[in-house]
What we know:
Blueprint: H1 9-13, H2 18-41, H3 49-57, H4 71-85, H5 92-108, H6 118-126, H7 128-133, H8 138-150, H9 155-166, H10 178-184
Amino acid sequence: MKKGSVPTLPQINRIKNRDTLQKTMDRLARRSNERLLELERSGLDESSPAFRAAQDMLTGKRFTRSKNLTETQMRKEIENNIRFLNMQTSTVKGENLRIDRVYETLKNEALIDEKVDKKLFADFLKSDAWKELKNIDSTQIMGEASVAIANGKSVEDLIQSWKEYENMTPDPDNPINPLDIFESWTEVPYGEDPFSADLE
């Protein structure tokens, strides 16, 4: 195993000595925790898929380096560390590359206005609106977003729409589906179809 490399599970399975297992867990946890801290300091913790995945693995805020774990617990911790460290978005560079890739893809598909800068777009990726988008049929949402942008909406408008939805007082007798908010992006006054010029 090369120094500084992330070990594979087969390599870990070959470790039989408890002290070696403990040192391996400690080394990996230090690296993982350094990455978590770097993501937080860079303001990328809310957008990074790897950071969010780590929160499901942790019992606290950081990967443990405890010396009081059983061998089974240590192996599970090592497995979690390996999974996190192998994620591209566990690093600041990797998450920035992902944001750039998503931004350029949406821009090339005309799903994002060229006037929307990457900083605003990165903020959108951290928002609850984007998290909700990913839980709903992406094809439908991208279609709604495309029409909304063609109708003059900006990513900032979409964020504001979501904030207004969050601030609504819940009505048990008349619940609001988040999809209703997204569909409202595409509401166009009669006779003002943004695509009508394509038919002439």
